[in-house]
Amino acid sequence: MRLLILTQAVDEKDPNLGAFCRWYEELAKGCERLTIIALKAGQHSLPHNVRVLSAHKERGASQIIRRIRFMWLSLVSLRHADAVFSHM
User: What is the tens place of the pLDDT at every residue in 34-54?
Assistant: First the structure.
């Protein structure tokens, strides 16, 4: 299965969403490919079949640029996904 996850952040050090990195590791075990699109990507150590794409909030991109990039990444990645999970 090729799974696409949409989320706010992928960062092990995030006080609220850091725990979800463990979820992504477990989900990756049952997936051929796991693509995660996040508004912000920080520190993470995910398996080789996990691809993390960011809207560049961590780089200080403006809100309009982040929205456009998030939508573009979602549309492009959707073509290669069997299922989509949107978190928050």
Answer: 999 999 999 998 999 999 999
37: tokens are: 């699109």
Residue 86 and residue 74 in contact, taking contact as beta carbons nearer than 8 Å: no
Q: What HEC string does the chain produce?
A: CEEEEEEEEECCCCCCCCCHHHHHHHHHHCCCEEEEEEEEECCCCCCCCEEEEECCHHHCCCHHHHHHHHHHHHHHHHCCCCEEEECC
pTM over 0.70: yes
Closest CA to 26 of 41, 9, 5: 5
